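Repro:
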Amino acid sequence: MRVEVQVMLKNGVLDPQAKAIASALHSMGFDTLKDVKMSKSIFLDLDESEKQIALQKVEKMCQELLANTVIEDYVIKL
């Protein structure tokens, strides 16, 4: 089973990379840009056929390693 985990900074956490992109886009004339938010995608191939078990395993992976839950949120897509 292929699983995608999308990890992004929580709202209110400073994101200098996204701020730099937004600034560059504004300087290039993209004046209607309101906000930029960066995220990273992690793709996992699991040897698991049951969705609920896969979800539980990936949830544990996120809590223990893939995301810093103090400053990051994550979304799991099965």
